[in-house]
Hints:
Structural class: alpha/beta
Distance between the termini: 25 Å
Number of strands: 8
Low-confidence stretches: none
CATH architecture of the largest domain: Roll
Number of domains: 2
Strand content: 25-35%
CATH superfamily of the largest domain: 2,3-Dihydroxybiphenyl 1,2-Dioxygenase, domain 1
Amino acid sequence: MQSLQLDHLNLSVNRFADSAAWYGRVFGFEVVEEGIWKGAPWGVLRKDDSMLCLYEYPEKQQIRDDEQAERRFHHLSHFALRIHDVAAWEQVLQREQLPLEYGGEPIRWPHSTSWYVRDPSGHEIEVVYWDEDRIRFG
């Protein structure tokens, strides 16, 4: 099989400008393409090989995981972004005053640590640092 890589995530957001600025400040994403679709702003944000495609839908609301479970719909709980520098990430958390989900503390997994935050539209993002900056299991 040929090599495979996730290309992008497509997200609806309340306000494109606010979300693009937030992803820029928090994760270093840059707007590389933008336009108007059905009368509303959209754009592609890129950081290295990671891309997000954001479409503005101000009338939509984010449904939380517990609400999704009650409705019995499949859904995307969160997406994860991998970091390589914990100290730099902790500076971003402090500078942006980002509240952490799940008790306000990072969660320790067997080989990684995760911080869970929400973007301006309510999408949950897991920020993960793998021990020794190396993905492993078992």
